[in-house]
Amino acid sequence: MLTFEYTRADSAAAAIDLVEREAEAKFLGGGTNLVDLMRETIERPRALVDVTGLSAAIEVQEDGGVLIGAAATNTALAEDRHIREHYPMLARAILAGASAQIRNMATVGGNLLQRTRCYYFYDDAAHCNKRRAGSGCDAVDGFNRIHAILGASEQCVATHPSDMCVALAALDAMVHIEGKDGTRQVPVADFHTLPGDTPQVETVLAPGELITAIALPANPATGQTYRKVRDRASYAFALVSVAASVRVEDGSIADVRIALGGVAHKPWRATKAEAALRGKAPSEDAFRAAARAELADARPLRDNGFKIGLAERTIVAVLQELTA
Amino acid sequence: MEFTINGSTRTFDVDIRTSLLDLLREHAGLPGTKKGCNQGACGACTVLVDGERINSCLALAVQYQGRAITTIEGVGTQDALADIQAAFVEHDGFQCGYCTPGQICSAIGMAAEAKRGLPSHVTQDLAADSVTLDDDELRERMSGNLCRCGAYNGIVAAVRQVFVEEVA
Ligand SMILES: Cc1cc2nc3c(=O)[nH]c(=O)nc-3n(C[C@H](O)[C@H](O)[C@H](O)COP(=O)(O)OP(=O)(O)OC[C@H]3O[C@@H](n4cnc5c(N)ncnc54)[C@H](O)[C@@H]3O)c2cc1C
Ligand code: SF4
Ligand code: FES
Ligand code: FES
């Protein structure tokens, strides 16, 4: 680990100012990803601005939505009564991630910005365009069982590992961002980017911009859940995961949202599957056709072809559970 | 940097990069907390901060200044074992013992979480006010602590004996 200066910010403005002033400065949340990457010298910040003292409030808004301060811990968000009752897919997604110890430390802001678990990204001896632009990608023709089947490029086939973000994408959550030039909001589904020719770029966040909050829109009463498929029953990253909600009215699907985890460089909102289902009567055949419509563009690598069938079956199973 | 460790106020002058785990083991003279993976994957380094369990290997000590840290040395002593320590002995909750300090601190944090109604990945009813700690719940909630000796059955038995009745 390279040495660094440490400051604890007491306001968003102060945090932004501090990161602006110091060269190669980074915000520090719970540190569960950043400290690990600094130890491996994959991340080399020279200054850390601790933002865990900023807003961690979880507040129901007048319009029925919820505003979540970026410093809220993963545990606090999953524990919140209103979230458990009205956004159960979000509570379930968080509880399916990492371990209790890590969820106690990890913040919502840090969870959004956690980096890929691609083995070659962590291995300094490997070629990795994300770690060193232009150096190549050892995963494309290497061990790629955990890698992407949708939206990947020749330059990078990594996945985004978050569970929480998959639920946020399905819920149409917004990321509240603050920088030296003011504030803006970006839908979670547009916040992370596909790798293309610049896999080192992972989000639309500009250098020095701070995530201040996540906003959940008021949620129509729907059945919703999160299902995660992994190599062991707990404490493992998703091979494939599905966050979904369905509302059936008069025998046809009035509202459906589906997002997939473990399949792409970002939480993958399954808009094609949603479009195929809207207005249809719920049935296994309709669910399967919708899943296939979404996965028609999936491209298997050497070791991860199983994810296509697994994603299809998981989508079908989740939709069946929600409409049973 | 100042901390309250096992009830005593302690001050250290250490490199800014020092993890809470290394601070405890190398500087505070408390080697009970163990270093397994040093990357968040095993739970051997679990300690309690203001009563909440965390992995001290992923924690920069500087972030936890001013907080109350409890390590296994603060849970009980050789002459006066805490109930959970005695239960680990009684139920063979370990073989080599390397994961045990982390398991015990984790179990204490877990019991507090269950008491306040925090659901887990295996909880059916997220809206329920209270948690029933059956063995599936215990295993899921303790899954952040690996045991390479595979003493899991003994660990579950020890945790069940001490904490399940207390919660219910
Ligand atoms: C063993 C292990 C298993 C795990 N398993 C899972 C899993 O199954 N599912 C899952 O979803 N996750 C898993 N995780 C990842 C975990 O969820 C993340 O490490 C965590 O959410 C990161 O949050 P943090 O606050 O610790 O972030 P940090 O490590 O502090 O920061 C991460 C990044 O976010 C930036 N950042 C932090 N806050 C802000 C902010 N407010 N504004 C702008 N930038 C910010 C930092 O600069 C840094 O680049 C696992 C982690 C470990 C170590
Ligand atoms: S898949 Fe992406 S992160 Fe992994 S080695 Fe290739 S470029 Fe690096
Ligand atoms: S040593 Fe901290 S989790 Fe393994
Ligand atoms: S007792 Fe040996 S690792 Fe658990």
Helices and strands in order:
The complex is a heterodimer of chains A (324) and B (168).
Chain A: E1 5-8, H1 12-21, E2 25-28, H2 34-39, E3 47-50, E4 58-60, E5 66-69, H3 74-79, H4 81-86, H5 88-95, H6 100-105, H7 108-112, H8 119-122, H9 164-170, E6 174-179, E7 182-187, H10 188-191, E8 210-216, E9 223-229, E10 240-249, E11 252-261, E12 268-269, H11 271-277, H12 284-295, H13 306-323
Parallel strand pairs in A: 1-3, 2-3
Antiparallel strand pairs in A: 4-5, 5-8, 6-7, 6-8, 9-10, 10-11, 11-12
Helix pairs in contact in A: 5-9, 11-12, 12-13
Chain B: E1 2-5, E2 8-11, H1 20-27, E3 46-49, E4 52-55, E5 68-70, H2 72-75, H3 83-90, H4 100-115, H5 135-141, H6 152-167
Parallel strand pairs in B: 1-5
Antiparallel strand pairs in B: 1-2, 3-4, 3-5
Helix pairs in contact in B: 3-6, 4-6
Bound molecules: flavin-adenine dinucleotide (FAD), iron/sulfur cluster and FE2/S2 (inorganic) cluster (2 copies).
Q: Can you tell me about this structure?
A:
The complex is a heterodimer of chains A (324) and B (168). With 324 residues, chain A is of the alpha+beta class. Chain A has helices at residues 12-21, 34-39, 74-79, 81-86, 88-95, 100-105, 108-112, 119-122, 164-170, 188-191, 271-277, 284-295, 306-323; strands at 5-8, 25-28, 47-50, 58-60, 66-69, 174-179, 182-187, 210-216, 223-229, 240-249, 252-261, 268-269. Among the domains of chain A are: 5-52, 2-Layer Sandwich (Uridine Diphospho-n-acetylenolpyruvylglucosamine Reductase, domain 2); 223-323, 2-Layer Sandwich (Enolase-like, domain 1). A 5-stranded antiparallel β-sheet of chain A has the order 4-5-8-6-7. In chain A, strands 9-10-11-12 form a 4-stranded antiparallel β-sheet, with helices on both faces. In chain A, a hairpin with a 5-residue loop joins strand 4 and strand 5 (66-69). In chain A, helix 5 (88-95) packs antiparallel against helix 9 (164-170), helix 11 packs antiparallel against helix 12 and helix 12 runs antiparallel to helix 13. The N and C termini of chain A lie far apart (52 Å). The relative contact order of chain A is 0.13. A 5-stranded mixed β-sheet of chain B has the order 2-1-5-3-4. In chain B, strand 1 (2-5) and strand 2 (8-11) form a beta hairpin. Classes of the chains: A alpha+beta (324), B alpha+beta (168). Bound molecules: flavin-adenine dinucleotide, iron/sulfur cluster and FE2/S2 (inorganic) cluster (FES) (2 copies). One FE2/S2 (inorganic) cluster binds next to loops of chain B. Chain B: Pfam families: Fer2, Fer2_2.
